[in-house]
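Lay summary. Proteins are chains of building blocks that fold into shapes, and those shapes determine what they do. In this project we predict the shape from the chain. Here is one chain we studied, written as its sequence of building blocks.
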Amino acid sequence: MSKSWPAKPLGDLCKLINGRAFKPSDWGNEGLPIVRIQNLNDPKKPFNYFKGHVTPNHSIDTGEVLLSWSGTPGTSFGCFRWNRGPGVLNQHIFKVIVDETQIDGDFYIAAVNSRLEEMIAKAHGGVGLRHITKSKLEAIHLPVPPLAEQRRIVTRIKECTERIDELSSLIPSMASDFLTLKYSLLFGEDSNKLKWVTVGELVDLVKETESVTKNKIYEFAGVRSFGRGVFSGSTRSSSDFQYSQVRRLREKDFIYPKLMAWEGAFGIVPQGLGGRVVSPEFMVFRAKEEKLLPEILDTYFRSPFCLEDVCSGSTGSNQRRRRLNPKEFLKLKIPVPSMEHQLALREFHRIEQQMLESRSQHENELIALRDAILRKAFAGEL
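And here is the predicted shape, written in a compact code that computers can read:
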């Protein structure tokens, strides 16, 4: 922070109004969307809806400033400008009424986001879920230069971040082009050589589960990046579970979610994550024999052709809450190219994994660059 700028407690610059504490029984398929932390971080995440009476304190609309003060450190905390229309605010998010006689709204958002490490350090709770009290949040000091200087800084921040957004937009397009090439190779072989069989002819559905032991620590395998099959390991206590059964994995098993809202959260269990567990919300498949290389199964399940079949076999009235029937899933038809063609596709799969690792590295570098821009901005160097 520039030494020439005065600083004021956050609570002197705004009014914070907490969202409503909804019960699952309040959720529905109609009414106003319930804005949760996941909806702030990812526009693709589905909404739950509420059809009842909403007070002015809990209603929001485009242009509102929102501050998430609870959740997973590094992903959940943050300040946002809402731009997706009318909604009703969930708990753990503050609606912020900014005093714009003192501080510009966009400057406020940037200033709060430059203090996230301080917010997290003051938060209470365990490793996985933490929250900061309103009093501690209001006590955090923000810089308050003259309004004209605030607006100049906001303009410079936007100029820099727009360039980062341009670079970020190139990364998924490259991955999409590569996937299109993979799909064309999968279905591009001579149709006389391409056999179609059911998924059930190639894999067994793993039905065995283990009962969850109270207060036991489990090693989970989760798909960290939806649609990309990038696995990560995590340690969780059974006291945090919402289910009583888990399913044990082996290396090269293939997992697929039963819930359509998790579309894309699937992939091959990599080396080193065998022995970990997943919740019963995932289907687990194990190859019967090497008729089809696991990489080819992975490629097909990511294809738009398979997605169309998967959607048609799901049940439920709400598209995002539709569920897959494992027995119907095993009836899906899948192409089996010649082994020569499969080996060529396996090489493409290997290159794709390298590209995904590189993509993750570049994305982390861009995140670090955004953080550096904020640091410079509030050090008076931008």
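What the prediction tells us: The mean pLDDT is 79.
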